[in-house]
Design brief:
The structure holds two protein chains of two kinds. Chain A is of the alpha/beta class. Chain A has helices spanning 10-22, 33-39, 60-69, 85-94, 106-120, 152-163, 171-178, 187-200; strands at 2-6, 26-30, 48-52, 76-80, 98-101, 126-129, 132-135, 140-143, 146-148, 168-170, 206-211, 215-220. In chain A, the strands form three sheets. A five-stranded parallel beta sheet of chain A has the order 2-1-3-4-5, sandwiched between helices. Chain A has a four-stranded antiparallel beta sheet with strand order 6-7-8-9, with helices on one face. Chain A has a three-stranded antiparallel beta sheet with strand order 10-12-11. In chain A, α3 (60-69) links the parallel β3 (48-52) and β4. In chain A, α2 runs parallel beside α3 (60-69) and α6 crosses α8. The model of chain A is unreliable at 223-230 (pLDDT under 50). Chain B has helices spanning 4-34, 45-100, 120-166, 172-200, 216-234, 251-268, 322-332; strands at residues 212-215, 237-242, 246-249, 274-282, 285-292, 336-341, 348-353. A five-stranded mixed beta sheet of chain B has the order 2-4-5-7-6, with helices on one face. Chain B has a two-stranded antiparallel sheet with strand order 1-3. Classes of the chains: A alpha/beta, B alpha+beta. The interface between A and B is medium-sized, with 36 and 33 residues.
């Protein structure tokens, strides 16, 4: 995945470069708005742009505005040291897709960049965590070499959880993922699918953590005794 | 505006006039009594002696009347003066009470129309001082907010670099050192964010223009991620009971409020405990409640936990600012913040009721 990082603070830029490279992304760094604007003239410059607002010369807002004015559709994640609502609103109105306030967790940034790439580009062909892999083209789940037999809805739930990596998803979100047309599906039904999935992927090195009263989160096992909830 | 002098005059003028009038009437009566005896003055020695005795009696009567009047007048004057002065000082007492009930950060000017004319220079001098003090407080808050903003960029760099370093395999001693640096950085980031929240919740920074209709349950949903990890590390069962809870408020401040209440509960609940976050509508009022089954807060200390830099447990790594921020944010939103015992008399429950 080709990422363009526009950040004038060299420590952050270097850190982002290291973190994202470790996640298998290809990172290009520029330290000012004009250079970013130049680069983004090419449609294939990046799959996702991570853009600081406070840049020397042309600021982040202006870079996004010009990009969108040219019809560029590459997703943009804004970074800012200010959390003023004006910035957030202005950023999103100008055409940015997401917004992160410094200091942020690297994992959070990577997750958001992945989510943006997924929303805008081709869906990932293979999702994986621990020993579990989901081949989205053939809709087949595997634990190591063993094929796991899943119903259509179980597959959808697992795919949704895996797409969100180690992030919390609410039961409501899962329902909307299974039934985009708003058909009637109870929260209890989601619990049933999840408990079946737990049995089927028990040996996959991943666990589905229950967030009581809210939803679920996929995480790497072994989750020690901490996960007391059913 | 009423003058103390006018007030004194108002109370004294009536009685003084009355006493003068009484004196006049008495003198008139005495003169009337003496006059008829003046004509037959030289009639006889018997009559002369009689007149002398009557005059003596009259003198004594006048003397007694005068003494009595003096006594009454003295007592009445003392009473009047005592009454007038304490009455005159009432505005000063009001002023003292007004100043006495203020919190350290309440620096609004005193109302000069509520004090007598003579006190106005004092009040305006005091208002001048209050203005300078609040300007100072404002400058201090702006400075803190500015410093906190400036710190965010280097802290972000430090955090990113340390997270990359921490994710790499290292010998145990190095890994331990990196973990400690990460913990210290996290604390610095937290403190910095707390200072910013505190500055934002200041009434003079609070902008009505930022208010927007918000769903409290969605704001709690956005806050969950970081706390799920924090709860997992401590083995705390963190749960939610979220019903629709529409409010009008400042998105960032309400997130700060939610974050601080949950963080506070997770921080003071021991390993293996339970924390439950609720929101919804009860009795036509939107509420947010965070309940834990930790050690709870003794009834005697429930008032001062919301003050800045107060910590019930000195061993904790809290800044002592979290609950002060919650209180300030609730206050600018016109919401009521209460703390009580959790279910079954264990732990604590913090509740915010929006009006």
């Amino acid at each position: 995945m080709q990422i363009l990082v526009v950040e004038d603070d060299s420590v952050i830029a270097d850190g982002l470069c290291r973190v994202m490279t470790a996640q298998g992304m290809t990172v290009q760094v520029v330290d000012n708005g004009n250079a970013a604007d130049q680069l983004l003239q090419r449609a294939d410059a990046a799959e996702v742009v991570v853009l600081d607002i406070g840049l020397p010369g042309m600021d982040g807002f202006e870079v996004v505005r010009r990009l969108r004015a040219r019809g560029g559709r590459v997703p943009v994640l804004l970074l800012t040291a200010r959390d003023a609502i004006e910035d957030r609103v202005r950023g999103l109105e100008t055409g940015a897709d997401d917004y992160l306030v410094k200091p942020f967790a690297s994992a959070e940034l990577v997750a958001r960049v992945r989510a943006l790439a997924r929303r805008h580009g081709e869906p990932l062909a293979v999702l994986a965590m621990g020993e579990l892999t989901l081949d989205c083209a053939t809709r087949r789940a595997r634990v190591r070499d063993r094929v796991v037999d899943l119903s259509v809805r179980e597959w959808t739930v697992l795919e949704y959880l895996l797409q969100h990596g180690a992030r919390v998803v609410s039961k409501q979100q899962i329902i909307e993922a299974i039934l985009p047309w708003g058909d009637d599906l109870t929260l209890n039904a989601v619990e049933v699918y999840v408990s079946r999935l737990r049995l089927k992927i028990a040996d996959a090195g991943v666990a589905i953590r229950t967030i009581r009263g809210f939803g679920y989160m996929l995480e790497l096992a072994p989750a020690p005794a901490a996960d007391a909830a059913p | 505006m009423i003058s103390i002098r006018l007030r004194l005059l108002k109370w004294l003028i009536g009685p003084i006039l009355l006493i003068n009038l009484a004196g006049g009437v008495l003198a008139y009566k005495l003169a009337a009594l003496a006059a008829p005896q003046a004509v037959p003055a030289a009639a006889s020695a018997q009559a002369a002696a009689d007149t002398a005795r009557k005059q003596e009696q009259l003198r004594q009567a006048v003397l007694r009347a005068l003494l009595l009047m003096e006594g009454v007048f003295a007592v009445a004057s003392m009473g009047l003066i005592w009454f007038s002065v304490s009455n005159g000082l009432r505005p000063l007492n009001r002023l003292r009470a007004d100043l006495g009930t203020r919190e350290a950060e309440e620096l609004a000017p005193l109302d000069p129309s509520r004090v007598p004319y003579e006190l106005e220079p004092v009040v305006s001098a005091m208002n001048g001082l209050l203005e300078k003090v609040s300007e100072g407080a404002r400058a201090r808050q702006d400075f803190l907010a500015n410093v906190a903003h400036q710190l965010r960029t280097p802290l972000a760099g430090l955090k990113t670099q340390l997270e990359w370093l921490g994710a790499r395999h290292a010998e145990p001693a190095t890994a331990q050192s990196v973990r400690l640096m990460q913990a210290a950085t996290e604390r610095m980031i937290r403190q910095t964010n707390q200072l910013l929240s505190l500055a934002r919740a200041e009434p003079h920074h609070f902008e009505k223009a930022r208010l927007e209709p918000l769903a409290l349950e969605a704001l709690v949903g956005e806050a969950i991620q970081q706390f799920v990890e924090q709860a997992a590390r401590k083995g705390i069962d963190l749960g939610f009971e979220l019903q629709p809870a529409p409010v009008t408020g400042d998105r960032f401040l309400l997130r700060d409020l939610i974050d601080n209440l949950i963080d506070n509960a997770l921080r003071y609940t021991p390993t293996g405990g339970t924390v439950t976050v609720r929101c919804g509508v009860a009795g036509e009022r939107v509420f947010l409640a965070v309940e834990d089954n930790g050690p709870g807060i003794p009834a005697a200390r429930r008032d001062d936990i919301f003050s800045r830099y107060v910590r019930l447990d000195d061993k904790s790594h809290g800044s002592g600012l979290g609950l002060a921020i919650v209180r300030d944010i609730a206050r600018v939103h016109g919401a009521a913040l209460t703390v009580g015992e959790g279910i079954a008399g264990r732990g604590a429950v913090f509740k915010v009721h929006f009006s």
